[in-house]
């Protein structure tokens, strides 16, 4: 009883969200390598964020500066209530917007991507710029010249090297910032004198662009008079170097040596951050002692002693030319500056600006709403004086110079004066009928939450009416009295309290969720509520329907670069107002035409304005280089340990099966590197008779034995690749090499990948023991169940992190598959993926024969891994309404500037989280929006931008804040924060912080209700699951103490928390338990002609486990089926295929396909659960009284264990803490 | 050494295909050249000379325009000019055959990025000195590359108007071509190739 919740947190200030931050800051200053973060001058805020101690180990460093972000001096507001316009507006738009129901859904078969506006003779032109059609050549050239003006000007602007040094030195693709002139506000200058942001007034090039570019695209290509004349030259005979001759090849090898090993990599990529150590990586190219065994079938007896690098068995005269050291730095970071920076786009500050005087109009939605502007709100107009302190905010400060308008009113929004009326607005209409029994699960944005469906069964959910003055989510729940706190139906995301039209348009909670669906107006209010504020993102998830837009102009706000979205307001036909910074922008001519309806003059009906999730095909302005091909490199451990575990067979088999399904176009490239104490490359150049193995034994100074035949075109070398994959599993069967030179192998992989970027998949089975990045065992098995200090949660070396940053700079992500039976220091190894936007998979005690369930899981995971969608050279930026600011991102990525995440790869299974703070009070607005833009190169070489926009109401009362809590989002955000806290501070701190999160929020809530009884523990309905989930977190592998937990398991759980999307993370935290021995079709749903039963959820307590039953527990990556001793033989026979309980085998991982109703139901249910997640879970059938049952029972988190509270005890503990 | 190859539509400068910068060249700072190339594409039009060499410091751009498509290559200045143009002609004949008809209809940048595979292969032939010998045939066909106009990329890009026929004269290297008629035009120049 001692440990789990522990004593109250010693430092009062260290509570709830701030508490994580507070400690994080202090913790952050400590350990990291200062060299890691030389100042990056991405932008004013950037340099502020990147405190030297830096991005380092823990993201929460950023939290430090949270205070500094307040926006510039004045919040730009508008003078609405121009009644004339109002009338005009409502008159004009009221009708059309009724149809807001996205037309796309109507016209579209599910599963199809729709391309708008694509196709040859850009139809947009109709009526738009007819003039440009006329003059064929002359007018066209005229257009060209006019168009070129802005380009040259902005390019010059970029080529001044001092400008964006840090930005552009990172090679990724990015938005070249067509408009990005950073205007320097006086404030920022003062704070950052050293950084110069040229404020080219140059007419915003972006603005000019859309005036002309339509025309040229359609112009018929001129007919060249001389066509054909020059085509006569035939193809020269291809003459590949004769690769079969060893000597020859070796020669050319030496040739390359002198010139070609310079730090491969795209020039501008050498991230200054990582500059200092690239040196060490790239001091390469020496002593190529590689032997060239001409046949892959020859087992590596050719190994050279690594101590004698010059010896070469097969090669005469091993070249030993050492490269001049200067060659390592052909590109100094600073010189690489010339490129348009790769920021998603710069936030320009339009110095001349404007907007406030623009006589804005109410949002179109208001018109529908009835346009009632509560007077209350307009009174608070004068925006509070922002901190005068050092706030060089580069962010959208539209008009720093413009005097504050004396009177301001809400630019838009509808009444949300106090709590009740607001909620009354939100009453029921949507609930009726929106919950069709069949397809509820396909997308749950419609599922009502406010009425507290949770209490009702899902099929009844639609019927609830809220006539009570108090919203259901605020109904006080006495936690200690409520015996069954867990609802029997799944908990859905709450629906933000918006009007009906906004609700329909809003982003799906599957992609985008906020912990508070009612955003508090001020930071003070947020502090009072003691709840974490942040976003949970799943930006690249697989979608069945996605509008894809091809258009010459991607319409974005000129000052903050927000993409046009459903929540902007159209002031009139020609202007729209940004919903994030409130700038008024012109509607480009092209946008007036709606390709969907083929009509002109209805900009508000364009797909961009009708869908909160859209994808744009980007123009070449969004590319720093031609879109890269898909490149896949596999780096495989072939030491004795690996061969013994036998993963190679599974991997090679999976690859052979899925070779044709790897995402990519005809340029797709693939390569293989294997390693033990040496590194083996495979020459797969087209034309060879069989793969060639090249061994490099100089692991201290890794080089590539041949530059261009190691990563080969998948289609041209397919036969060789197949040969290799067939041969690999048996090539090392007799190896006695136990060492593992993982670090050097990774360095080689980096060199191979840096010219293009792509994905590296590393398979590792033990602690790396040789060369750079070698690790020692740090785990003391006796401490596994310690209740005190858990050590070594952080990396032992920064080698892997540095490598990851290098890779990230070269658009390469490293994915780690750790298949290990003993401790492998995942805490250190995971860094290779964390910072390169890779992913991490861990298969503890993997063995292909002894552990068949893991082997099967690997096989299924690989299938998903190899064939799932992938995006390359990606960047993601999140924007939010002026007044809110982001700090502390969670997930696998590299933070390049304050809000730009560099993602070398993006995959559909990656989740992210962001913490938010309220820098400036939101009194002038009733709505806030968040926009995520993910720019990536598809595997087909298309540059695309996926944009999600979420809209949420702003509230001013504490009760409203509580009413809008999304408890699942909150718990996931807390889990992320707690991981950071565990690493930066200690596990016990993190645990205390979690407990305090409950204590503080419930006590804050308690103080708001009038008849507060100290004897009861009261929570609002919206928060009633909060204590349960926190308790679940405390018992989760990542955070538990007192129960034996292997260090790698714990670290892996933490990695998952940081990178899993909410929907999967929730199952990890709080598994779902179902009774499955009496499945019925009652309430069943139909999926693809299958009937899927929907048994009610059971609480995670042994009291629910009757001996007569069988239960299924869904833990996300594992399913347990627990069979009670007294389970009916019917079930055992019909479902498990065994005659009786005693005959059920100990290790059962499959359900037989039996032709009985109950078997069919059970399998249908399990298949349905499986299909809902990307990685296939392992199934364990657990008999009561089998040794495996402890695994199962430890997930029953409501029960007491030796080391932890039961749920009820936990509640009492919280209550005690509150009363203190 | 061929460093960068790009193919674009002349009408609007839309890039159609390109070869990733790679291998040993990757250490160099090609970004600047790449953006110069992009700017150049936007400046080209029907009046532009259809064969041109543009000097850019230690590097040289060569391009040809055929059927409304511009084929551009960035080489080291020392790289033989006739090889460069032969290379471009090779690209042209293959590209035209594969994609020529689709060129006017596409709107997405790098719609034919997969042509990269061919570019890479061809490039290898031209930069490999052994293979190069077998390209002997081109020697005769393109012997007149000397007459191709030479200009400086910076000047071209900084000039306000597009690279056009009338402007060519200014940028002609007068010394080198002093013997040429001042009314040198593309018709004239192309007659050499005929």
UniProtKB/TrEMBL annotation, chain B:
SUPFAM superfamilies: SNARE fusion complex, SNARE-like. GO terms for biological process: endoplasmic reticulum to Golgi vesicle-mediated transport; protein transport; retrograde vesicle-mediated transport, Golgi to endoplasmic reticulum. GO terms for cellular component: endoplasmic reticulum membrane; Golgi apparatus; melanosome. Pfam families: Longin (PF13774). Keywords: Coiled coil, Endoplasmic reticulum, Golgi apparatus, Membrane, Protein transport, Transmembrane, Transmembrane helix, Transport. One of its GO terms (molecular function) is SNAP receptor activity. Its main location: endoplasmic reticulum. InterPro entries: Longin-like_dom_sf, Longin_dom, Sec22, V_SNARE_CC. It is a single-pass type IV membrane protein. It is found in: Endoplasmic reticulum membrane; Golgi apparatus, cis-Golgi network membrane; Golgi apparatus, trans-Golgi network membrane; Melanosome. Residues 134-194 form the V-SNARE coiled-coil homology domain. Residues 6-119 form the Longin domain. SNARE involved in targeting and fusion of ER-derived transport vesicles with the Golgi complex as well as Golgi-derived retrograde transport vesicles with the ER. PANTHER family: VESICLE-TRAFFICKING PROTEIN SEC22B (PTHR45837). Belongs to the synaptobrevin family. This is SEC22 homolog B, vesicle trafficking protein. The gene is SEC22B.
């Amino acid at each position: 009883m001692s440990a789990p919740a522990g004593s109250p947190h010693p430092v009062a200030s260290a509570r709830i969200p701030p508490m994580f931050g507070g400690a994080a800051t202090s913790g952050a200053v400590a350990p990291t390598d200062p060299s890691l973060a030389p100042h990056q001058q991405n932008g004013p805020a950037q340099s502020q964020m990147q405190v030297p101690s830096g991005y380092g180990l823990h993201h929460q460093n950023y939290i430090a500066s949270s205070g500094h972000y307040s926006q510039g001096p004045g919040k730009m507001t508008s003078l609405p209530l121009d009644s004339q316009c109002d009338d005009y507006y409502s008159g004009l738009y009221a009708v059309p917007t009724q149809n807001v129901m996205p037309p796309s859904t109507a016209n579209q078969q599910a599963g199809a991507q729709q391309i708008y506006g694509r196709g040859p003779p850009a139809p947009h032109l109709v009526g738009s710029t007819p003039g440009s059609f006329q003059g064929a050549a002359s007018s066209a050239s005229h257009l060209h010249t006019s168009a070129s003006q802005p380009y040259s000007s902005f390019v010059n602007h970029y080529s001044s090297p001092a400008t964006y040094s840090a930005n552009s030195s990172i090679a990724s693709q990015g938005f070249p910032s067509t408009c990005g002139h950073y205007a320097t506000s006086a404030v920022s200058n003062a704070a950052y004198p050293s950084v110069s942001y040229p404020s080219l007034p140059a007419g915003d090039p972006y603005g000019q662009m859309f005036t002309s570019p339509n025309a040229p695209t359609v112009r018929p290509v001129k007919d060249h008079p001389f066509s054909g004349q020059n085509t006569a030259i035939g193809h020269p005979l291809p003459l590949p170097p004769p690769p079969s001759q060893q000597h020859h090849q070796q020669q050319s090898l030496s040739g390359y040596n002198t010139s070609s090993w310079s730090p491969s990599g795209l020039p501008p990529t050498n991230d200054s951050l990582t500059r200092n150590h690239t040196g060490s990586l790239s001091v390469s190219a020496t002593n190529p002692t590689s032997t060239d065994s001409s046949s892959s079938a020859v087992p590596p007896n050719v190994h050279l002693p690594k101590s004698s690098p010059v010896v070469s068995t097969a090669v005469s005269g091993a070249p030993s030319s050492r490269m001049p050291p200067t060659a390592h730095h052909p590109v100094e970071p600073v010189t690489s500056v010339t490129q348009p920076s790769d920021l998603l786009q710069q936030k320009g500050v339009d110095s001349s600006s404007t907007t406030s005087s623009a006589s804005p109009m109410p949002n179109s939605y208001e018109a529908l709403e009835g346009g009632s502007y509560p007077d209350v709100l307009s009174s608070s107009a004068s925006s509070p004086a922002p901190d005068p302190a050092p706030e060089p905010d580069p962010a959208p400060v539209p008009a720093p110079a413009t005097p504050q308008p004396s009177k301001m009113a809400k630019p838009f929004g509808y009444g949300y004066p106090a709590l009740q009326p607001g909620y009354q607005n939100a009453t029921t209409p949507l609930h009726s009928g929106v919950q069709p029994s069949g397809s509820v699960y396909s997308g749950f944005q419609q599922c009502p939450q406010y009425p507290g469906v949770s209490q009702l069964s899902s099929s009844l959910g639609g019927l609830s009416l809220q006539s009570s003055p108090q919203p259901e989510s605020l109904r006080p729940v006495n936690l200690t009295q409520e015996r069954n706190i867990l609802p029997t139906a799944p908990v859905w995301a709450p629906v933000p309290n918006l009007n009906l039209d906004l609700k329909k348009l809003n982003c799906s909670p599957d992609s985008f969720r906020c912990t508070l669906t009612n955003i508090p107006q001020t930071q003070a209010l947020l502090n009072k509520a003691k709840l974490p504020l942040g976003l949970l993102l799943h930006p690249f998830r697989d979608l069945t329907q996605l509008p894809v837009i091809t258009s010459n102009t991607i319409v974005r706000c000129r000052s903050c670069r927000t993409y046009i979205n459903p929540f902007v307001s159209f002031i009139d036909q020609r202007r729209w107002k940004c919903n994030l910074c409130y700038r008024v922008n012109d509607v480009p001519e092209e946008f007036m035409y709606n390709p969907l309806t083929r009509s002109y003059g209805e900009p508000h009906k364009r797909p961009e304005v009708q869908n909160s999730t859209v994808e744009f095909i980007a123009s070449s302005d969004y590319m720093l280089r031609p879109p890269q091909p898909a490149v896949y490199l596999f780096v495989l451990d072939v030491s004795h340990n690996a061969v013994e575990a036998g993963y190679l067979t599974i991997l090679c088999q999976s690859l052979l099966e899925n070779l044709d399904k790897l995402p990519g176009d005809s340029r797709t490239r693939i390569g293989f590197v294997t390693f033990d104490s040496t590194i083996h490359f495979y020459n797969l150049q087209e034309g060879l008779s069989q793969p060639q193995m090249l061994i490099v034994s100089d692991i201290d100074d890794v080089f590539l034995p041949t530059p261009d035949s190691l990563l080969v075109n998948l289609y041209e070398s397919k036969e060789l690749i197949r040969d290799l994959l067939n041969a690999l599993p048996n090539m090392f069967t007799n190896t006695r090499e136990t060492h593992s030179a993982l670090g050097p192998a990774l360095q080689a992989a980096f060199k191979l990948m840096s010219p293009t970027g792509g994905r590296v998949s590393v398979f590792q089975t033990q602690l790396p023991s040789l060369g750079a990045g070698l690790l020692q065992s740090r785990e003391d098995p006796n401490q596994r169940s310690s209740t005190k200090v858990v050590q070594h949660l952080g990396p032992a070396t920064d080698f892997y992190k540095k490598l990851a940053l290098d890779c990230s700079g070269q658009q390469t992500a490293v994915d780690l598959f750790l298949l290990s039976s003993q401790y492998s220091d995942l805490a250190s190894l995971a860094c290779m993926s964390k910072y390169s936007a890779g992913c991490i998979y861990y298969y503890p005690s993997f063995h292909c024969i002894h552990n068949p369930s893991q082997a099967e899981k690997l096989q299924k995971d690989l299938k998903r891994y190899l064939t799932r969608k992938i995006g390359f050279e990606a960047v993601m930026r999140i924007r939010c309404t002026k007044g809110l600011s982001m700090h502390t991102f969670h997930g696998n990525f590299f933070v390049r500037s304050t809000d730009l995440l560099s993602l070398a790869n993006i995959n559909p299974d990656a989740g992210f989280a962001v913490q938010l703070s309220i820098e400036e009070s939101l009194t002038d607005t009733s709505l806030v929006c968040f926009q995520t833009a993910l720019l990536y190169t598809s595997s087909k070489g298309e540059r695309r931008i996926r944009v999600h926009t979420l809209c949420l109401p702003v509230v001013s009362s504490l009760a409203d804040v509580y009413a809008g809590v999304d408890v699942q989002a909150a718990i996931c955000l807390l889990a992320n924060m707690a991981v950071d806290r565990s690493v930066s501070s200690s596990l016990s701190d993190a645990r205390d912080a979690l407990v305090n999160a409950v204590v503080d929020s419930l006590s804050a809530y308690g103080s708001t209700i009038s008849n507060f009884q100290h004897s009861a523990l009261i929570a609002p309905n919206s928060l009633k699951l909060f204590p349960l989930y926190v308790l679940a977190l405390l018992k989760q592998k990542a955070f538990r103490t007192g129960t034996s937990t292997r260090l790698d398991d714990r670290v892996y759980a933490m990695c998952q928390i940081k990178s899993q999307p909410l929907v999967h993370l929730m199952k990890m935290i709080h598994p779902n338990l179902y009774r499955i021995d009496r499945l019925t079709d009652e309430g069943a749903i139909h999926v693809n002609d299958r009937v899927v039963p929907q048994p009610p959820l059971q609480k995670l307590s042994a009291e629910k486990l009757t001996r007569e039953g069988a239960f299924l527990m869904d833990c996300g990556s594992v399913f347990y089926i627990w069979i009670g001793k007294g389970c009916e033989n019917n079930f055992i026979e019909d479902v498990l295929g065994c005659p009786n309980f005693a005959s059920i085998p100990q290790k059962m991982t499959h359900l037989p396909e039996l032709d009985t109703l109950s078997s069919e139901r059970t399998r249908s249910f399990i298949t349905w659960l499986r299909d809902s997640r990307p990685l296939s879970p392992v199934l364990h059938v657990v008999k009561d009284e089998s040794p495996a049952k402890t695994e199962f029972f430890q997930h029953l988190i409501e029960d007491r264990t030796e080391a932890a509270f039961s749920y009820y005890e936990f509640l009492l503990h919280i209550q005690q803490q509150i009363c203190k | 050494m061929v460093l960068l190859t790009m193919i674009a539509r002349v009408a609007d400068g839309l890039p159609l295909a390109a070869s990733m910068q790679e291998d040993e060249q990757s250490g160099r700072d090609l970004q600047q050249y790449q953006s110069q190339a992009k700017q150049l594409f936007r400046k080209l039009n029907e009046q532009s000379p259809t064969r041109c060499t543009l000097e850019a410091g230690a590097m040289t751009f060569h391009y040809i325009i055929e059927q409304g498509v511009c084929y551009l290559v960035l080489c080291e200045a020392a790289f033989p000019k006739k090889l460069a143009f032969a290379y471009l002609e090779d690209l042209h004949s293959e590209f035209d055959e594969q994609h020529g008809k689709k060129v006017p209809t596409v709107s997405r940048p790098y719609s034919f990025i997969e042509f990269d595979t061919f570019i890479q292969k061809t490039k290898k032939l031209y930069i490999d000195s052994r293979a190069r010998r077998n390209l002997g045939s081109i020697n005769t066909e393109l012997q007149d590359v000397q007459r191709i106009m030479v200009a400086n990329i910076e000047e071209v890009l900084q000039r306000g108007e597009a690279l056009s026929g009338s402007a060519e004269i200014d940028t002609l290297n007068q010394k080198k071509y002093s013997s040429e008629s001042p009314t040198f035009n593309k018709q004239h120049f192309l007659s050499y190739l005929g």
